[in-house]
Design goal:
Blueprint: E1 2-4, H1 8-19, E2 25-28, H2 32-37, E3 43-45, H3 46-54, H4 59-64, E4 66-68, E5 70-75, E6 78-83, H5 84-88, E7 93-95, H6 98-112, E8 116-118, E9 121-126, E10 134-139, E11 142-147, E12 151-153, E13 171-186, E14 195-198, E15 205-211, E16 214-221, H7 232-243, E17 253-267, E18 270-271, E19 274-276, E20 282-283, H8 291-312, H9 316-343, H10 351-366, H11 368-379
Helix pairs in contact: 1-6, 1-8, 8-9, 10-11
The structure holds arabino-flavin-adenine dinucleotide and P-hydroxybenzoic acid.
Amino acid sequence: MGIIGGGPAGLLLARLLHRSGIDSVVLERRDRAYVERRQRAGVLEQGTADTLRDCGAGERLDRQGLVHHGIRLHYGRRSHRLDLRALTGGRSVVVYAQTELVKDLIALQLADGGPLVFGARALAVTGADTARPVVHYAHGGREHTLTCDYVVGCDGFHGITRDAVPAGTRRTYERGYPYSWLGILAGVPPSCDELVYAHSERGFALFSMRSPTVSRLYLQVPNGTDPADWPDERIWDELDARAATWQPARGPVTAKSVLPMRSVVTEPMRYGRVLLAGDAAHLVPPTGAKGLNLAVADVTELARAFARLKDSGSAELLDGWSDTCLRRVWRAEHFSYSMTTMLHTAPGQSAFDTRLQLSQLDRVTSSPHAAAELAENYTGLP
Ligand code: FAS
Ligand code: PHB
């Protein structure tokens, strides 16, 4: 099995395949330090956490992860708690940074997994419609080839594997958003013990965390924002203004970057013996905390399909894999779109649209049915 990309999708797939006795090679273009420090997701659905535990990657997660039974919605100068556990019959989420999850999976892969080659940049995949697809890659100043039974593109939105699906076969669905997120790491304890999603006419703010001493914060900013235009003071003043009913504790900002928002789905997620998993196949705006969790779900399902093929010769799960994933992907696309448009104030937004948002927020915070729908999507549908 050739796996392109050593992010969460590629690393977890390699781990799950290894547990089923299936060999793989992971090709990662960056070096280990780069991959391990890349700031990304922070919230794991219960199913994601269970998958990591089941494959032996749960030790630090259980020691350092923060289990959250609820989230807060702030709007109209009021704060509302959604009791995720009560609304879903017992499901919660775990706050555990993607950087930590990647470190855990790399350590496991290097300890007893197959080859994980850093600095190996895949250039192209040929023979997707043959029984022996080939990955062409550059490593150590030379070009190499890797002939595989299957190739799985876990190389993210900017990867190359999608190109192995002929343009005439590939269908891409996408939507842009008129705003981005300024992501901030701050060396200060979170001011709330649960995540706070704040709607305000100045724009959205998210108060998350990485540990009891590190806050992870996000501010809605215009597309094309330069992080250098946001000195610490301005960041804290804007977070105060959007939090409205409370004042987050201030501290040194240790990292800031701008994340554009997109919804993208590539169909199908398979062509011949080349498959696409995670961000290589789909993107969601991070408001619903789905990106990483979708990647985990894709590869968990794929590992099951390959194990079934190996053990019984049946290709039934593998042949249905793309459709199975896409049903989950589109549900997450809708949830992420819904959370994003409910909470963000678009540039030039009409007063009518703002009242629609407030009506939706009132509904979600007053109707147990509407609240349960949000909670079920947020904690991950079975
Ligand atoms: P990834 O992009 O994580 O990994 C792909 C890997 O492939 C990378 O290591 C890359 O170096 C490698 N690669 C690319 N091209 C290659 C090539 N040609 N050859 C070899 N290797 C190659 N999701 C959330 O839920 N919450 C968030 O707050 C959040 N924040 C995000 C912030 C940013 C800046 C970005 C870009 C994404 C964010 N996401 C967030 C989504 C993110 O967490 C993804 O869903 C998650 O990383 C998906 O994992 P992978 O599919 O493994 O893709
Ligand atoms: C994060 O902590 O990075 C995070 C949490 C919840 C989200 C998005 C990002 O919806």
